[in-house]
Amino acid sequence: TISEENKVIHDYNNLILSLPRENGCDTQYFYFYHGFWCPSTLIQSVNSFQNNFHAKDSDIVVASMPKSGTTWLKGLAYAIVNRQHFTSLENNHPLLSFNPHELVPHFEVSGNNTDGQMPQIDVPNMVEPRLYGTHMPFPSLPKSIQESNCKIIYICRNPFDTFVSYWTFINKLRLKKSLTELTLEESFERYCKGICFFGPFWDNMLGYLKESIERPDRVLFLKYEDLKEDVNFHTKRIAEFVGFPFTEEEENNGVIENIIKLCSFESMKESSENKSGTAALKIEREFFFRKGEIGDWVNYLSPSMIKKLSKVMEEKLSGSSLSF
Ligand code: A3P
């Protein structure tokens, strides 16, 4: 008889071997699992999240494609929801001592957990409203989230900028592991085929867009570019959506501006906490802050690449109301 643990390993191996696979972004392959691409090391935690997670109606979920502004949105959501606990936003605020990924955990990327439990975090006993993140596409989320009344704030970003952010980020991770850089061309070809963490990007975006149209009370669909253009407006919108609207008094006292400042790229990048150490998945905190600009892709992509990704976007997104 094989032990329980061996059985899990055996079952996962069978599952993994049955999945479509492509070269990944480090030494691991990417597998197409439940409608998205991810490395084998995540399959177990994804599976555990899908099968064991119990959503609460009060939950607030920050959903995104990687490199679309997740860190920023997590910071804003955390500051909005918890503002009554912190009288001063400038002193002693957790966002000054922790990276947003440490305050707003991602359950499906929590590493190798073999016991089916969410590691480190006492999930059922997290203070309500529980605030957590996900990169999984909407149809792949645990049924319990899909069927609950929890609030989902989704952020996406122009695929050109997202790709450049992704490629530079991946290479920082590779460098840390003493791996050679992935070429821009190679990564770009895969990205255009949808092969990247939690991609294809079009499925990820369109799934949440559809849900936000059908159930606007459930899913708030945001774009990085819109937040950049008018962060004040969107901060108020997020606060209303999650059920923590700003009072007139708060507005008059500059609470919104303080939150925006606390979560701004400049203050987050410059905070000493984010300049060293690691956040979730042992990723260097500083890797989450690069330029924080719109349009930096012009410095990287060739005319033929621009043409190619434009065509992919046209093909995949033109039937929707989504444009960049
Ligand atoms: P760039 O690589 O283009 O600079 P994610 O948080 O989903 O991993 O996305 C990372 C991208 O968001 C990076 O983009 C990063 O610099 C940018 N970013 C991080 N924090 C930000 C903030 N507070 N405001 C604006 N952009 C931010």
From TrEMBL:
Gene Ontology MF, one: sulfotransferase activity
GO biological process: sulfation
Keyword line: Transferase
GO CC terms of this entry: cytoplasm
Limits of the Sulfotransferase domain: 57-320
Keyword Transferase recorded: yes
Keyword Transferase annotated: yes
EC number: 2.8.2.-
Family membership noted in the UniProt record: Belongs to the sulfotransferase 1 family.
This protein's name: Sulfotransferase
Species whose genome carries this gene: Medicago truncatula (Barrel medic)
Entire protein: shown range: 20 to 343 of 389
